[in-house]
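Try it yourself: sequence plus glycine, in.
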Amino acid sequence: MKVLLIGSGGREHALAWKLAQSPLLETLYAAPGNPGIAECATLISLDIDDHAAVAAFCKANGVTFVVVGPEAPLVAGMADELRAADIDVFGPSAAAAQLEGSKGFTKDLCAKYDIPTGAYQRFTDAAAAKAYVEREGAPIVIKADGLAAGKGVTVAMTLGEALAAVDDCFDGAFGAAGAEVVVEAFLDGEEASFFCLCDGANALPLASAQDHKRVGDGDTGPNTGGMGAYSPAPVMTPDMVARTMKEIIEPTIRGMAADGHAFQGVLFAGLMITAKGPELIEYNVRFGDPECQVLMMRLESDLLPILHAAATGRLDTVSASWRDAAALTVVMASKGYPGAYEKNTPIRALPADDAVSKVFHAGTALKDGQLVATGGRVLNVTAVAPTVAEAQKAAYQALDRVEWDNGFCRRDIGWRAIAREKA
Ligand code: AMP
Ligand code: GLY
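Structure, out:
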């Protein structure tokens, strides 16, 4: 099979690395890719916003399957256009991608199909939103409705913070994404991410992970796209996974199909495990980054036939097996991230990959033969071992061999799981 992978982050490097191991693969192309992805795929220069050009590339080169990594092309309808051109695509239609593209859409689906989530209301003007916030009191959560690069959510511990967040959204802090605001009850518990493949009707549960969103050690400082992750998430016991499938994932798949936009691709459920059980915080319609990196390190099965089965309505014919081990990834970011940072700083050395550890590239580029950092999140140093503590040790040992003066990382990825292992 000839496959095209869309994207250029650490998530896509992990997908490319795993797809490249498939005996079913003839050629793997990637657009736009990165220097890490170039080690396992042929990079092509394509404007991925031009869906007709992507379809034309596939037709001209015998590509029959496209795997879409990030959410933006999905929300923009890439999967619809490629499918209309008879190309198999892993990833949902624009209508189904609203599960990530509109928080209000997802909350309405939860209400309609009785999926556990925080009580909420949607607002299009500040005065009504503020009146609701004042009635409900803090803590309370204020969310810009649309895609805001992970920055549109304020967990307000005081009324003042909540009212200011409402103003921020309607004053345009998140652009069009904030034209509508969702105000939601604060959920108390431990967060976990759960990943499940869907083919429109069938579900194949994958695995769980936990990420570290805050930039600083001890989960302090501003939110980021994720500074590290590990899999599995200890809070996702077999019982909790079974409840998540029955109470959250399965009603979502049935509801989406019944409403005329069957979901196909990966459902990434952000969960809060509360005293009542799993509750949905949000859905994403693509793999997490860096959660995908730890999932791919643990996946034993061939990834290609599983993704292709999801894309073609045959998920009931495949299964996935996982290493009974922990995987952990540490993100190295450019100093300053998630604020402003210097670009094109040289990365002079990387550790060689071995059976335990592997470096996935995110924001890197080659400039005159020199590897440089071009993004905020730049490298994902990932390791797999019997316990989270051992995976953490191996990941930091590899990371300490990275020679990049402008890079930094958290030193405590996995702390919660390691404390549990010690208990
Ligand atoms: P989201 O972008 O929806 O994932 O929200 C970002 C983060 O805000 C989540 O990972 C949670 O840590 C937090 N969060 C979102 N919604 C809630 C909620 N209803 N209760 C408590 N924390 C929340
Ligand atoms: N790491 C969180 C995300 O991919 O949304």
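One thing you can check immediately is this: Residues 238-258 form the longest helix (21 residues).
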